[in-house]
Amino acid sequence: MSQGLPELEFNRGEAFLRMDEAIAQTIEGLPDFPGFQDRTTLKLDCSEEGRESYEINYTFPEETIGSDLVTKEYFTVLKEHWSSLGWEIHGERDDVDGNIADIQATRPDGVNIWYSNMLGQAVIHAQVACVEAEGDPVCGPPLGGVTPENDHTKYCTLETPDDSTSETAEAIAPFGGTTAADVPGAAPWARGPEDPESPMSDPYADQL
Amino acid sequence: MSDRMVIDHQAVSEAVEQIETVAEDLDAAAVAVNADAADAVTAIPIGEFAFRPALNAAESWWYSRIVDHRNHLIDLAQFMATNAAVAAQHDQDSESDLVELGEELQVDVDEYTTSDYYETTGAERPDYNPAALPTDGKSVAVE
Amino acid sequence: MSSLSWRTFYLTGYTGLDDAAAVWDRYISEAADFEATLIDGIPVLKEGAADQARDDFDGETADLVRGQARHIAERFLDDLDAYASHIKVLLQEAKTDFETKRDELAGLFAEKSVYLTAEGEPGEERFEVNESDLYNYLTGSGTVEPMNEYEADAYEQRVREQAVDLSDRFKTLMDSVRELDDQYAADFKALNDDPPPLPPYVGSDFEAKTAEYLQEQHQDFLDKIESGDAIPEEVNDWWNSLAEGDQELFVHELPELVGPVDGIPTEDRDTANRILLDQEIADFSPTLDEDIAVIEDRIAEIEGNWSEIVANGDSIDRAEELEQLREELARLQGERVTYNELVDLQSAIAEESPTGQQYYLLGYDSAGDGKAIVSVGNPDTADNTVVYVPGTGGDLDGAGGNDLQRAETMAGDAAQVAGSGETAVMVWLDYDAPNNPIMNSPSLSYAEDASEPLASFMSGLDATNHDPEETTTTVIGHSYGTTVIGQAASEYGLDTDQIVAVASPGMTVDHASELGIDPDDFYSTTAPGDLINAAAEATLILGSDPNDGGLNIQGGGLDSGFGGTSFDSDNMGWSPVDIHSNYWDDGNPARKNMAMIFTGNGDQVT
Q1: What is the pLDDT of residue C373?
Q2: pLDDT score, position C387
Q3: Euclidean distance between the first and final Cα of chain C, in Å?
Q4: Among the four A129, A166, C262, C474, which has the fewest Cβ within 10 Å?
Q5: By the CB < 8 Å criterion, does C584 face chain A?
Q6: Domain with A101 in it: what CATH number?
Q7: Closest residue to B109, CB basis, from C24, C31, C61
Q8: Can you give the pLDDT at residue C397?
Q9: The pLDDT of residue C243 is above 60
């Protein structure tokens, strides 16, 4: 998606934190969130010199495969939730039986989220297209209770919360005047599965 | 070579003896077949038939080949005995004969010489015997 | 030369040869147990499954010792068959042959007149007339009645004629006996002509020498591989016939004979190729950067002082020097590029892939633009295998970079399909891909050159797969890569269940049925606006458009189309050039469709 996106205001150093942040915001809207099974990172094509595209994938646990929760309910929920966050919904696609199987939304900062039903297995992709290849790509601990052996982070360097306090928080604050520490959910590891106590206010409220 | 060798020096020493026995049996059987086969054809005069000396040469060559095989077995047994002896020297555990030899202790398969065997095991060097000398993989034809 | 006399030959008993053969026969029977005695009878020398004996002697050196014992045993048994058995057989044959000849000679003697006597040294054998006895017989001296003159003349005539006739046969027979004697002499002498080498002795580069020994033992089959006469299935059978220790030696000591060979299991090829890659990188000059800098400085110095050089009349010599320096600089810079590409490849596959799978290096070549085959996941054990053939611009750099990332994306997407199991995705760049999409791509020559290697690779995967019947295998090409697949599939046939064409300019055929698979197992996509649409339609050099669904009208009638199933892909942008590369981009539905196909769910594509 190298065309048609807003000019990105962040570089490679922040890309993974932004993507995890968008997923954290997404799962805030999911009722009965079951957690995630694993996280993988991918590097995608970008034809522009000096720019790179990345993706984070989270798969839902095996026990949710084929459940109405992930194959039906979440599509409806996400449509409303993403809209409420002011994200642009697109990429709605049905499967061969006419059931919705894909939906995407783009956050104002250019991070794209893609929720997909892969024959009953639900997957969330977060993607950034063609960011400036500057800064070492850093990612925080995985969301949704992914265990270390299921966390595959080839394309980013994993930082624990202790490593990434003030400096990282400054770095990922996407909008002026607000630091990451001020934004609930900006530290993506703040919420695990079934953690209804974790509040998530809209970090973009100021922008709307 | 390897950075680690686990060796039960007692078990390997027993294997060494077995290999040496196999080697000597191999030799003895080859000696016997040559002698018995030669006895069987004494009625065919060696000075008259051209094939007779050639048969003798072939049988002798076979024996020389067996000597090479025997020497390989002895060589292998001595290498094993050398490492077993090193392991025995470093066996700190009276309960078990199992010893782990690091790179610095084990006798390397690429650098081993028969001197290592005699020096490590204290075995007595044999008298000079050309037939027992390694031929570096080449057979010694006996005409 | 045999100088055997007829007397010795006739009077010698040959049963001794049979007796000697029996002695050898007993010896061979008893010696045949040698391997069982040496290997199976001595626990620590036994190779194979872990047991107490293996615990008693463990480690690489122990494995080499066991391998050496096996090599000695195998060599001995081969020798037994080649030499001891041969001696036995020659003895048996000699006995039969000599006795047959002696029977012939006895027949000759029985046939002859009593008035003929065998005489003569070797080569001069003849029957001579016993004149006095014949005279007495004819003249009736003694007790015999005399013949009349007519009868006597006739009788004498017959005896003399027989002497001539039988003498010829006698000499001929004895010549053949001596030839036989010479032949057996030659056979026994030839027995030890050029005997195969024995294993090396322990010590002094033992491991390397053992590998050389091993290579020599298998040289015939290795030559067959080298000449391309061994199909991957045969290679796999050969490899599996080797003892584990010998496989290890091949991989570690002779990696060049293992790494590129289709039919050898993935794990072993990977280890061998990584060794080769490490060695090649280590072989580059450690002072490459400094050498380049020195030359650049010297060039700058000459160029900077050119006016002065001209003024001093030294311009001809310095111009020559400049030319040489620039040539050397270009060479070193080329080396630097290759070095960087190899290091990048080494680095790209050093750790686990982003999907959590291991990388496997199935081949590489740094010559020219470079080639490489890299797998995300082990295709021998995966539930689904995918071979991705990149198109224009594919090179060593891409095999460790952009194309490898696409393979990772495809493996990751496939893993997300419920119940899919593991999907191994390979980047197959074992061909010289065209560099320029405008200048080179319309040419078929690149695909023709790639055809046989791709077919061989696919056969190799089939041979090494743990369960080829149950594994879903797909070959997917992008752009010119689809042309390569089409050429290989139509020319040789590919061991694959499915073929996928992404942004194809043509596959050298007009219908999916010509690809050697069921057309229902053919899938294609080209995004709207992809530049390849125009290229494919404009040229048709590379064959019909694989996305032709049969709805277009040609020549006034309905065309049946290319066959197979077309699936959706988004353009993800507006630039025709970018669209051509966007199929693996974030959010492109082509990714999901490909994942469905790879995992055997092609009926789910949209």
Answers
A1: 96
A2: 98
A3: 87
A4: A166
A5: yes
A6: 3.30.2030
A7: C61
A8: 79
A9: yes
A103: containing domain: 12-171
Three-state DSSP class for residue A197: coil
Q: Determine the residue of chain C that is closest to A155 in CA distance.
A: C354
The closest CB to that of A91, out of C353, C412, C587, belongs to C587
Flag whether C touches B (3+ CB pairs, 8 A cutoff). Answer: yes
- What pLDDT does residue A63 have? 95
Q: Which chain C residue shows the shortest CA-CA distance from B31?
A: C27
Quote the CA–CA distance of C246 and C505 in Å, as a whole number: 46
Mean of all residue pLDDT scores within chain A: 80
What are C486-489's contacts with CB under 8 Å, separation 24+? C486/C447, C486/C515, C486/C542, C486/C543, C487/C444, C487/C447, C487/C448, C487/C450, C487/C451, C488/C447, C488/C450, C488/C451, C488/C452, C488/C454, C488/C455, C488/C458, C489/C514, C489/C515, C489/C516, C489/C517
How far is Cα C74 from Cα C38, in angstroms, rounded to an integer?
11
Test the A interface: residue of C586, C592, C596 with most A CBs within 10 Å? C586
**DSSP code of residue C509:** S
Is residue A123, in this structure, part of any structural domain at all?
yes
Mean pLDDT over A127-148 rounds to 93
Residues across chain B:
143
User: How many domains are there within chain A?
Assistant: 1
Contact between residue C67 and residue C60 where contact means Cβ atoms under 8 Å apart: no
> What mean pLDDT comes out for the span C74-87?
94
User: Averaged over C30-49, what is the pLDDT?
Assistant: 81
A170 min Cα distance to partner chain C (Å): 27
Task: Please judge whether C354 and A42 are an interchain contact, meaning their C-beta atoms are less than 8 angstroms apart.
Answer: yes
Query: Which residue of B lies nearest to C12 if distances are taken between CA atoms?
Result: B44
In a domain, A201, yes or no: no
* Contact between A119 and C601 using a beta-carbon 8 Å cutoff: yes
Residue B83: CB atoms within 10 Å: 30
CB-defined contacts B:C, below 8 A? 216
The distance from CA C265 to its chain's CA centroid, rounded to whole angstroms, is 14
Task: Determine the Cα–Cα distance for residues A51 and A11; give it in Å rounded to an integer.
Answer: 9
What residue ranges in C511-570 does DSSP mark as E strands? 522-525, 553-554, 557-558, 565-566
Q: Does A133 touch chain C (CB under 8 A)?
A: no
Q: Rounded to whole angstroms, how far apart are CA atoms C457 and C484?
A: 13
For residue A113, is it within any domain? Answer: yes
Whole-number pLDDT of residue A198? 39
Find chains touching chain B: ≥3 CB pairs under 8 Å.
C
Question: Would an 8 Å CB–CB cutoff place C350 in contact with chain A?
Answer: no
pLDDT in tens, C470-480: 999 999 999 99
Q: Which residues of A touch C577 (CB under 8 A)?
A: 47
Three-point CA angle B123, B127, B132, nearest 5°: 90
Q: ipTM of the predicted structure?
A: 0.88
**What DSSP assignment string belongs to A50-98?**
TEEEEEEEEE--GGGTT-HIIIIIHHHHHHHHHHHTTPEEEEEEE-TTS
Task: Answer whether C572 touches A (CB < 8 Å).
Answer: yes
The answer to whether B and A touch (≥3 CB pairs < 8 Å) is: no
Per-residue pLDDT for A4 more than 90?
no
What does the mean pLDDT of chain C come to? 90
- Check C41 against B55: CB less than 8 A apart: no
User: Using the beta-carbon criterion (under 8 Å), do C20 and B37 form an inter-chain contact?
Assistant: yes
CA B134 to chain CA centroid, nearest Å: 9
Does the pLDDT of residue C281 top 90, yes or no? Answer: yes
Q: Which two tokens stand for residue A39?
A: 């996280």
Average pLDDT over residues A135-145: 94
Q: Is the CB of C585 inside 8 Å of chain A's CB atoms?
A: yes
Q: How many residues does chain C have?
A: 606
**Taking residues C230-241, what's their average pLDDT?**
96
Taking only residues 190 to 209 of chain C, the set having a beta carbon closer than 8 angstroms to any beta carbon of chain A reads none
Is residue A167 domain-resident?
A: yes
What does the alpha-carbon distance between residue C589 and residue C163 come to, in Å, rounded to a whole number? 105
